[in-house]
Amino acid sequence: MTDFTREAARLLRATEDALYHRRPMTGLFDQVSQSPMRKRVGGADEDLEGVSNFPMQASWFSNAKGCRGGHVCDSAASITELERQLRIVMREVSDLRCELAAERETRSSALTALGRRWKEEVLLEVRASEYQSRRVIDNLVVSLEQQRQEDGTARSLLQQRVEDLLRDSKVRDRTHFDAQEQLREQVDAMRERLESAVSECALLRVECVQHQERENSAMLSGSTRN
Questions:
Q1: Is the pTM of the predicted complex or chain greater than 0.85?
Q2: Residues 89, 19: contact at Cβ < 8 Å?
């Protein structure tokens, strides 16, 4: 509770005590008489006896000089004084309401300004965080794009190397096949020549045998004649 609220509560309690003719608490009228709101109403510096804001207080001051029995001597004067004090009290209550409304408006404006400031700070933080996040995402996208390009280049080089190896392998296979075919042809030719040579050797052997037999026959027939 603020000082203004406590002072307003004391003033309202004192007003209620005065209207219902209850004896105020000890020291309450001294506090009210010294309060800023008490000084702002009805001249502020007048004597408590003359322009007191509380009728019972005025009557107590009057009784202190004249009627000490605790009752107002003159009823008409007391009623007039009560009416005057009631108007003063109502004016003070109205002023108090205005001050309370002004304080409420001030607090509302302060809270609104604080909320607006907090919102702006939060928006700034959110925008800064969003900017940082977007920057990180952009860097990540650039890095991924660069990595993708490097991977594409490496894949192209690897594919080209594989194609070259396949081409060389095909060339080697064709060369090896041609060499095998040529070697097979040479082997076949050598086999044919070998078979032909074997046949010729067999014929020569037969001829040699026949020649040897003829020579043997000739030698036998010559020896027989002798």
A1: no
A2: yes
